[in-house]
Specification:
The protein is mostly helical. The chain contains 18 helices and no strands.
């Protein structure tokens, strides 16, 4: 079930209505049933995988409470192995099979494994990481084991963030479920949630889906397009993936907030970052902090010598790349980010940065970082390394396309609308660097505030209903 579908527009108001009308003891069962219905709208049978993850990690948490020493480590290893095995089979089996088969073919040998027709369960990487975070937190005794199977099941299955995050921690989400009976209907909180939903839908439906038409047209056949077209499509994808993914996160947070649940912020103006390291503190924050807490810090964190720290960063970003997809393009994408962050650390060792740069210096840093990030998106979006290499080569050498053909798939009018929307997005994020624009509007006079709301609603409806997109597009991160 897509957030940007009519089904969800019926499903969620019904769930919210029942949540506040039914007796409070029915709230957790309602959320469990609603989450199952939401997930089974994609591939019903795959709900069994989630049930398996829930039973394994719930049991592991209880066993860890009473275990000591080696037995604790065995229980943790068994839990993590079960989760990673599921992820490895569904997401990476064919990737490894293809690479092993290619290696055998190079030596004239038949493939030892057959390619399997495996359909990746929606959001598998997200809910396995969320479930593993619980086991790790219990192992480190940062949280007590959850004794309610119902609460833990909803922790893993909670439908607003089930398929694309944010990846929550038990300290936040489970703690709120323990107090769910105390939640009362709050109009101000619901309005905040609706604002988040509206902004998320605007980013997704109006901006991301419009840019996706151009991006898909160019990246589907990169050899048929010039460097100028490929560069514009790459910039368009940079904005598309941000609006698509942050839009999902906004809708997830908004729906949860209406129900009285606060999910963590997953994005915070990432394209205003002045370094690649800062970008990752602002982009997909729940995944960045997951790798920081459960991989980087256990490897030594910042306590180790600089050279070892750089190696650890490369390990983390390699894992981040392969987490995103079973393709060498994602590995290269992750390693490029690891190289950039490591280079940043080395440069700071040689020449410390100015903590208070001038406005011009800050703007130049933002522009540089944005362009570096945009170039790495080539590997993220390209179908394979050959396409990515072709795109990178042409971006720097081929600018032969006339202006009229720079936006395949979009008319000149639609391209100008998309460009105006992108400029408006960056302007809004620059204005609201300290806090969201919605919060800034809340401090303004009522007539100005409601005029802005009305203008936003009119713009959203006009652009959403008249855009070139013909049907609801899935969110980009559903494939992960």
């Amino acid at each position: 079930m897509l957030f940007n579908s009519l089904e969800f527009a019926v499903f969620f108001p019904l769930v919210a209505l029942l949540f506040f009308l039914l007796p409070v003891r029915a709230r957790m069962p309602l959320l469990l049933v609603a989450s199952c219905v939401f997930y089974m709208a994609f591939v019903p049978a795959y709900i069994l995988i989630l049930f398996g993850v829930i039973l394994i990690d719930f049991t592991s948490g209880l066993l860890l409470e009473k275990a000591n020493g080696t037995r604790r480590r065995v229980i943790l290893a068994a839990s993590l192995t079960a989760n990673l095995s599921l992820l490895g089979f569904f997401k990476y089996f064919n990737f490894f099979q293809d690479n092993i088969s290619g290696l055998f073919a190079h030596f004239g040998q038949p493939a030892p494994l057959s390619h399997l027709a495996i359909l990746l369960p929606i959001g598998l990487s997200f809910h396995t990481f969320q479930s593993m975070s619980y086991t790790l937190e219990v192992y480190w005794r940062r949280v007590p084991p959850e004794r309610s199977l119902l609460n833990f099941a909803v922790y893993v299955l909670f439908f607003p963030q089930l398929v694309a995050g944010p990846i929550e921690r038990p300290q936040n989400l489970l703690a709120q479920f323990h107090n769910i009976r105390l939640i009362r209907f709050d109009l101000a909180r619901c309005l905040d949630g609706l604002k988040l939903i509206a902004s998320g839908l605007f980013k997704k439906v109006v901006i991301a889906d419009r840019l996706a038409i151009l991006v898909d047209a160019v990246y589907a056949a990169p050899a048929q397009h010039s460097g100028a077209q490929l560069l514009i499509a790459t910039y368009a994808f940079s904005v598309q993936i941000y609006c698509d993914f942050s839009g999902y996160s906004d809708i997830a947070r908004g729906t949860a907030r209406i129900l009285g649940i606060d999910l963590m912020r997953n994005f915070w103006r990432p394209y205003l970052a002045q370094s690649v390291g800062e970008f990752w503190r602002r982009w997909h924050i729940s995944l960045s902090t997951w790798f920081r807490d459960y991989v980087f810090i256990p490897l030594g964190g910042s306590r180790v010598p600089l050279a070892r720290r750089c190696v650890n960063l490369l390990i983390v970003f390699f894992l981040s790349g392969i987490w995103h997809g079973a393709n060498w393009t994602f590995v290269v994408w992750g390693l490029l980010h690891g190289i950039f962050v490591s280079a940043q650390l080395l440069l700071r060792k040689i020449r410390p940065t100015n903590p208070h740069p001038s406005t011009l210096a800050a703007a130049l840093k933002i522009a540089l970082v944005f362009n570096l990030i945009a170039l790495t998106w080539v590997f993220f979006r390209a179908s394979n390394l050959a396409d990515a290499s072709l795109i990178m080569r042409r971006i720097f050498t081929d600018f032969t396309a006339p202006i009229a053909t720079l936006h395949p798939g979009l008319s000149s009018a639609e391209f100008l609308i998309a460009l105006a929307l992108v400029c408006a997005l960056f302007a809004a994020e620059s204005i609201g660097r300290a806090r969201p624009v919605w919060d800034i509007l809340a401090t303004k006079p009522r007539w100005l505030r409601w005029s802005a709301y009305y203008a936003f609603a009119v713009a959203f409806l006009a652009l959403a209903l008249t855009g070139p997109q013909q049907q609801a597009r899935p969110f980009v991160y559903f494939q992960f």
